Every structure is written in C-alpha cells, then in structure tokens.
Amino acid sequence: MADQDDEREIDTAAPDTAAPDTPDAEAFRVETPEEDERLAESQHTIDEAKVIAADLARTTPDPLPDSEPPESSTPGS
C-alpha cells in the first residue's frame, strides 16, 4: 500500500508534464479589433525604424575607417 501512495505522490509532483496533445493558450486566443489596430501600429513603427536604421547605415561614415582590429586581446575582452 505504501508503494501506491509513493507512486501517486510522484505523479502529482510533476504537474508540468502535460500530454502532448493538450492545447496551449494560443489555441484559445481571440484577436479583437483594438488588438489588431495596436499590432498594426506597432508593425508600422517597426517598419519605420528599419527604414531609418538602413538610411543611417548608408549615410553615416565609419568612425574608424583606417583602424585594424587588435592582434592581441585587449584589457576589456
């Protein structure tokens, strides 16, 4: 009888072992029009930031154009 009690304790001690076919929270998610609008605004902001970053990469000169990487390790590395 003690073996059965021990076995039950082991089974209940591991709640994070869900069955592989158990749906996660994403399966029950419902998108609202407000959420769609926020996501669209966020994506627009991200797209603008990418354009600005690409423009800066093209127009900003290399601050150390003639420098070579150190041959030995530096104090900070």
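Above is the first protein from milestone M3; the second protein from the same milestone is given next.
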Amino acid sequence: MNAAAIALIAIAGLGLVLRRHTRAAAKVDPRRELASFAAHLARSCRGGLTVVEAASSAAPRLSGVVGESVSEVLSAVDRGLSLDTATRHWADAALNDGDRARGRSDPGDVELLVSAIRFADRYGAGLPEAFDSVAVALMDRCEMQQEVAALTSQARASVLVLCALPVIGVVMVSVISPATIRALLWSPMGLTLVVAASLLDLGAVLVSSWMTRLVLR
C-alpha cells in the first residue's frame, strides 16, 4: 500500500514537470515575434509601403503580446496620434511591465525596434536596412538565449534525476523488503529521515529553478 502511494506521488510529480515543460514550449516568444515583425517591415518598405502600411499588413500575422501591442499602436494612429508618439507609448509600457516570466516583451527589444520605427518615420531614409539590422540583432539574441537554455538544460535534468533517485529507491526497497519500508515509514526516526530527505529534495529543486531563471535573464 505504501509502495503504491509513493509510486503514485512520483508519477504525479513527473506529470506536473512534463506539463510545465510542455506549456513553456507552447508559449510564443515575444523576441522572435519582434524579429519577425522587423523583417516584415523591411520587406514591405523595400516594396514601397510606408511604415504604417507595412505594420498594418503585418499585424494580423502577429500573435501574443507583440500582436496586441502593434494593434494598439495602429489603433492610436487611426485615432489621430502620431506614429512617433504611439510607438513611444509602446516602449514606455514595455518598460513599466516588462516581465519576461509572464510572457511580456523585453523592454530592450521593444526600445530597439521602436527606435528604428521612429527614425524611419522621421527621416524616411534607409528604412529596409534599419529594419533588417533590427531583425538580425533580435534573432542573434534569440539564438544566444537558446544556447544558454541548452547549456542549462543538462543541469536541470541532473537535478530531476537526483531528486527522483530517492523515490525510486524507496519504491524498490518496498518491493524487495516490505519490512524495511514499514520500519522507515512507521517509526519516529524513519519518518524524521523521510521528512528531512523530502525537504532537501524540495530545496534542491527550488534552488536549481532559481539559478536557472537567474542565468536565463
């Protein structure tokens, strides 16, 4: 009975971890969306469109927070606000609530693209080249972020394995020697050891998660 309960807890924990990673993979990367938007602006301006026309044609293809922000900028322009002012409001909003953990755009990424848009709107020269440079810079940041994530994934996997080993060991011992597991779970000393080991495992997961987020910032 105890072995079955422990196995169910282990399976449930593994399911939560997999679900978390699946949800994280399904999220739209704002930085990649900004790079795609900048590349579209470059192609459209090279084809003769204005910045506002290029942004209007790109808006339906964008998703996530970038799509919402671009739609808000275009709506402000339609209401009579200048493109310079509307995009500056976008950059200010990104600076105020730029929390990458909640899927918001990085303020530095938005500022880079907004600076190119404002420059293009003000001077009207070198539009494709400016937006191409922004797209390349943002994609370089995406690749660097992916490389860092790949380097930290091994550490995360090691922590998960090390935390799972005690649970697997308890399950195996409960199958091989039920008397041993009964002594572990039904004696004061055994329960103390189980609680201490569980707290250490939990602490390792929390510290590893904190360090990973710190590196990926």
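Note on the second protein: Confidence is low (pLDDT under 50) at residues 1-8, 21-26.
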